[in-house]
Amino acid sequence: MFNDEFRKPDTNEISYYPEDEANPQNSKTKKHGNKEKVLGLIALMAVVSVGSIGGYKLVTEKNTAPETAIVEQASETAPPEQTEAAASSDTAVTTAASGETYHSMLELANKGSEMSVPDIVKKVKPSVVGISSEFVIDSGFSYLSGTSIGTGTGIVMSEDGYIITNAHVVVTSEYGTKITAQKVTVVLSDQSEHEAEIIGADTKTDLAVLKIDPKGVDLVPAEFGNSDELEEGELAVAIGNPLGFELYGSTTCGIISALNRTITTDNDSLSLIQTDAAINPGNSGGPLINSFGQVIGINSNKIVSSQVEGIGFAIPINEAKPIIDDLINKGYVSGRPLIGITGEDINQRTARYYDIPEGIMVRFIEPGSAADEAGVKLADIIVGIEGTAVKTMDELNSIKDKYSAGDTVTITVYRDGSELDLELTLGEATTN
Predict the structure, then answer these.
(1) Whole-angstrom Cα distance, residue 272 to residue 136?
(2) If you ran DSSP here, which 8-state letter would residue 160 be given?
(3) Cβ proximity of 135 and 172 under 8 Å
(4) Which position has the higher pLDDT, 266 or 159?
(5) Is 206 a catalytic residue?
(6) Which of 115, 174, 325, 427 would be a feasible disulfide site paired with 370, CB 3.0-4.6 Å?
(7) What is the torsion angle, in degrees rounded to the nearest 10, for the CA atoms of residue 398, residue 399, residue 400 and residue 406?
(8) Residue 302 near residue 48, CB atoms below 8 Å
(9) Which of these is catalytic: 89, 173, 206, 305?
(10) How would residue 148 be classed by pLDDT, with cut points 50, 70 and 90?
């Protein structure tokens, strides 16, 4: 991660969509967007997160001039119907003077002219839904408590009512506590509303699965593609509900800008697809689609900055599938390692005052957990794992997460004035 000294002064942190805080201070009930702070930096800019993407320029200033000139030249020599087609910029334009054929950017982005954008929209739009989440905030203070509403987008996965979306659409964070929506409503493409059950939500990957009873409505499942076959520069189409349901089912399009972009959100690294298709607050959880009308990504992140335009991110569908399967089958993501402690970071000032090392003081041990079985004791200070020094829970978890449940690791603890190595067989986390 780059140091703060490299950060541009007017670059904002990335935040999950929906964007507004669920802060009931000014109103008992108000619409807002869920947000998560994104800590990673990409290309010396702060990355904004798992939901929506900023503005998009279809043609840059460099490319606009010659394309406009082509249309004007065609209007001088071609019949009116040809001029009309040229002005649409979705089809090739042949100039009378040179006989050369010029293609629009969208046409060039479509690798084999598999489907037009209108045909893609007709195919996928019935599989895109709106999601409204109701959160009850109880801070312990009446003036900070109340109900808030957030909206997002989802994708129909199956005819029996499974819906995919982002975790931050149904889970928010207030006053340092994660809050799951008490009520979730899914709005289908026919505008019918259906109450949904949260099958599972994984904030680590920003994925969630909902389930509705379609009640006689014929759901249209989306077709899923292969995100491993994506190429930079190919067509990308996004459909979602920017800024709430007033703009329900909006379509934007662009290209795949880059692949395997790594960003860090809440100390979790994600490998994402970068696109310049415009995705805005409320698009979180919606589909990123290829030129075959297949879902190849789940829109999740964006960069927010006065100097940035059209840099957004989507979770590759191939990486999302195993997470989704686990959420459906188990309600959590399997195989994640668990030590089984609650710890408190000991900073440098505290360490000097009490003459103890910096590290993680163990405040709670889960009975029967890996830590319990290994002989970890309350007030032990964890100072290392697998030979690497750690001073915070974030550092400890970062190294731990490189292993799987069932792996054996060595942790180093400070106890009674000396360090002690303990072998620990990692358990499996059953909550997200």
Answers:
(1) 32
(2) T
(3) yes
(4) 159
(5) yes
(6) 427
(7) 140
(8) yes
(9) 206
(10) confident
The answer to whether the CB of 165 falls within 8 A of the CB of 210 is yes
Q: Active site includes 168? A: yes
Q: Is 188 helix (H, G, I), strand (E, B) or coil?
A: coil
| Pick from 338, 349, 358: nearest CA to 412 | 358
193: its two tokens: 């509303």
How far is the C-alpha of 174 from the C-alpha of 419, rounded, in Å?
A: 38
Residues 6+ apart with CB under 8 A from 138: 145
Q: Give the model confidence (pLDDT) of 32-90 as tens digits.
A: 344 333 333 333 333 444 333 333 222 233 333 333 332 332 333 334 444 444 444 45
Q: Per this entry, what is the length of the chain? A: 432
Q: Which domains does the chain have, with CATH numbers?
A: 1-57+110-331 (2.40.10.120), 337-428 (2.30.42.10)
pLDDT of residue 185 exceeding 70, the answer is yes
Statement: residue 181 has pLDDT above 70: yes
Q: Which one of 32, 89, 132, 168 is the catalytic residue?
A: 168
The H or E element containing residue 118 is: helix 117-124
b/e per residue 199-219 (b: at least 16 CB within 10 A): bbbbbbbbbbbbbbeeeeeeb
Q: How far apart are CA 9 and CA 245, in angstroms?
A: 34
Read off φ and ψ for residue 426, nearest 5 degrees: -65, 135
Grade residue 300 by pLDDT with cuts at 50, 70 and 90. confident
> With bands split at pLDDT 50, 70 and 90, how would you rate the model's confidence at 247?
confident
Could you tell me the maximum CA-CA distance found in the chain, to the nearest angstrom? 91
Of 88, 82, 4, give the one whose Cα is nearest residue 46.
4
Q: Are 120 and 291 in contact (CB under 8 A)?
A: yes
Cβ 277 vs Cβ 267: under 8 Å: no
User: CA-CA distances (angstroms) from residue 15 to 52, 53, 172, 218, 404?
Assistant: 9, 11, 12, 35, 29
Angle at 343 between CA 337 and CA 348, to 5 degrees: 125
Please say whether the beta carbons of 12 and 305 come within 8 A: yes
Question: Are 359 and 376 contacting, i.e. CB atoms less than 8 angstroms apart?
Answer: no
Residues 3-23 have pLDDT tens digits of 333 334 443 333 333 334 344
CB 384 within 8 A of CB 375: no
**198 within 8 A of 161, measured Cβ to Cβ:** no
Catalytic-role residue among 284, 291, 300, 305: 284
Residue 336 phi, psi (nearest 5): -80, 135
Q: Is 194 in the active site?
A: no
Confidence at residue 73, expressed as pLDDT on a 0 to 100 scale:
29
